[in-house]
Design a protein that fits this description.
Keywords: Glycosyltransferase, Transferase. This protein is α/β, with parallel strands linked by helices. The chain has helices at 23-36, 55-65, 83-91, 112-122, 150-158, 161-166, 199-205, 217-227, 250-255, 262-300, 312-315; strands at 13-19, 42-48, 72-76, 98-103, 106-107, 126-134, 144-145, 189-190, 194-198, 231-242.
Length: 329
C-alpha cells in the first residue's frame, strides 16, 4: 500500500491508541491498521501511559522498523493518569474532524475505521458512532447500553429475572440482535473500546473527565453529549475485534467474584454523585444493599452461587463522603 505522510493536526481522521503494559497488543493493532486501513486518510497517535515495562521503546522500535512513522507517532505520558487522561493527552493535539479512540486490545480486519468516518460524514445528525465489537472468532460482544441510574444497582445486585423484568429501564444492556450483538440503534452510551467522536462534541462539552481513572468515563462522556443534544449511533456493519483485558483486570475479577480495584469504585461513586448528586449516590448504595439482600436469600437457600464480588458491600461506601475528589480512595 502506498502511504502518504499525514500530520496529526491536519488529518481528516485521527486515531488515538492508549497503551499500558501491552506493547505486543499495540504492535499487533498497528500492524492490522497498516494492512487493512487507508492510512493516507488518517494519522495515528499512540500514547504510552507511563508503562513500567519497555512498552514505549518496543512500540517506537516497531514503528521505525516497519516504516509506520509516515502515519503513526508515539507520545509518552510522564504519569499513568488513567484512561481519560491518557486519551486527553492526544485529543488536545488533534484538530481533525473525526477522532477515533481505539483500545490497544483491538484488531481491525477490514477498513472499518475509515468506513465509520464516511458514515459519520453521511449522518451529520449524530456525533458519536460505534462499530460492532466482536471476539476473534466473529462472535458479537455487547457494546450498547442504557445509562446507569440508582435503581440499576438493585437490578444488578439482585441478579433476579423478576426484578430485572420489573425495572426494564434500569437494565443496562441494550437489546441484542439475538446473537449477542446489536441492530442499528441509538443507545444511551457505547463502549469506548472503539468509538468515533465528532470534533464539535469535544469543542462543546470538553475533553473526557480525567478524574475518572478507569471505568464510567465513557458513560459520563456520552451522558454529557446527550445532555448537549447529540445523538449516539451504533453501526453494526463496521466491525472491530476486541480481545478484552489488555490493561485492566476488572472484568476477570468480576467474573471470578474477586475484589475489584479501588479505582473502579471511585469511578462509580464519582459518576453517581456527578449526575445524581450525593443523595443519588446514597440511593444507589441503598438499592445495592437491597438487591444484595435478595441475592443473599437465594444463595442461602442453595439455589445459586455467590453473586457479589469480595468486599463489595464495603467498597461501595469508601468514596461516599468525598465522591468528587480523588480517584483511588
Amino acid at each position: 500500500m502506498t502511504t502518504t505522510k499525514t500530520s496529526p493536526s491536519t488529518a481528516s481522521l485521527s486515531v488515538v491508541v492508549l497503551n499500558y503494559n501491552s506493547f505486543e497488543l499495540t504492535i499487533d493493532l498497528l500492524r492490522s491498521l497498516a494492512e487493512h486501513e487507508l492510512v493516507d486518510w488518517m494519522s495515528v497517535i499512540v500514547v504510552d501511559n507511563n508503562s513500567p515495562n519497555d512498552s514505549y521503546q518496543e512500540i517506537k522500535n516497531a514503528v521505525a522498523s516497519n516504516r509506520w512513522d509516515a502515519w503513526c507517532r508515539i507520545v509518552k505520558s510522564e504519569q499513568n493518569g488513567g484512561f481519560s487522561a491518557g486519551n486527553n493527552l492526544a485529543l488536545v493535539e488533534t484538530t481533525s474532524t473525526h477522532v477515533i479512540l481505539l483500545n490497544s486490545d483491538t484488531l481491525v480486519e477490514a477498513p472499518s475505521l475509515t468506513r465509520l468516518s464516511q458514515i459519520a460524514d453521511e449522518q451529520p445528525d449524530a456525533a458519536i458512532f460505534s462499530p460492532r465489537l466482536q471476539w476473534a472468532d466473529g462472535t458479537a460482544q455487547n457494546s450498547c447500553f442504557r445509562f446507569f441510574r440508582p435503581l440499576t444497582e438493585l437490578v444488578n445486585a439482585a441478579g433476579s429475572g423478576p426484578i430485572t423484568r420489573l425495572f426494564p429501564a434500569a437494565t443496562v444492556p441494550w437489546e441484542t440482535d439475538g446473537q449477542g450483538g446489536h441492530l442499528a440503534c441509538e443507545p444511551d452510551w457505547v463502549s469506548f473500546a472503539c468509538v468515533l467522536i465528532r470534533r464539535e462534541v469535544i469543542e462543546q462539552i470538553g475533553l473526557m473527565d480525567d478524574d475518572f481513572f478507569m471505568y464510567y468515563e465513557d458513560i459520563d462522556f456520552c451522558r454529557r453529549a446527550r445532555n448537549a443534544g447529540y445523538l449516539i449511533r451504533h453501526v453494526p456493519d463496521t466491525k472491530v475485534v476486541h480481545l478484552r483485558g489488555g490493561s485492566s483486570p476488572v472484568k476477570s475479577l468480576q467474573t471470578q467474584r474477586k475484589r475489584r480495584p479501588r479505582y473502579y469504585y471511585a469511578a462509580r461513586a464519582r459518576y453517581y454523585a456527578k449526575h445524581f448528586g450525593r443523595f443519588g449516590l446514597f440511593r444507589a448504595n441503598c438499592f445495592w444493599l437491597l438487591g444484595r439482600g435478595i441475592a443473599f436469600c437465594r444463595e442461602a437457600g442453595g439455589r445459586r452461587p455467590p453473586h457479589a464480588c469480595e468486599a463489595e458491600w464495603k467498597d461501595i461506601w469508601i468514596n461516599f463522603w468525598n465522591p468528587l475528589t480523588g480517584r483511588h480512595r
